[in-house]
Design brief:
Helix content: 10-25%
Order of helices and strands: EEEEHEEEEHEE
Strand order of the largest sheet: 2-3-8-4-7-6
Distance between the termini: 6 Å
Number of helices: 2
Structural class: mainly beta
Largest sheet: 6 strands, mixed, barrel
Number of strands: 10
Length: 126
């Protein structure tokens, strides 16, 4: 039986599900939950504010084309659950503060239940 490990309230805005994450202890609001995205992505403003280390350049390709970014790591808190040393990608001009992609859930062996009507995201581990 799956055990719930985290629950967070979000908001549906323009067909996007947005949550607030804590990254390295600081709140990062308006992060898009997107299981179609590969990685945790943060924009340049967030990375600067949190002083995220540049661990090497990376080319990121998505629906809108390709762009340069860099790899980094950070601690991510969802609800009361803390995930340490999470791989992330920083894209300087990313239009949102961040995007939480499928890789995060897969790497942490998590199932998720997204309820857009109640505007909640629940994470489970088997």
């Amino acid at each position: 039986m799956a055990k719930r490990v985290a629950m967070v309230r979000g908001n549906v805005v323009n067909d996007l599900f947005l949550i607030t994450l804590k990254v390295n202890g600081a709140k990062v609001p308006r992060v898009v939950v997107d299981t179609g995205a590969a990685a945790l992505i943060l924009n340049g403003n967030v990375a600067r504010r949190l002083k995220l280390p540049n661990l090497g350049s990376v080319q990121v390709v998505g629906v809108g084309g390709g762009t340069a970014g860099f790899r980094s790591r950070c601690d991510v808190q969802i609800g009361t659950r803390l995930f340490r040393s999470v791989p992330c990608v920083v894209i300087k001009r990313f239009s949102k503060p961040g995007m939480l992609g499928l890789k995060f859930f897969r790497d942490n062996h998590l199932s998720l239940y997204l309820d857009p009507l109640r505007q909640t995201l629940a994470l489970f581990r088997n």
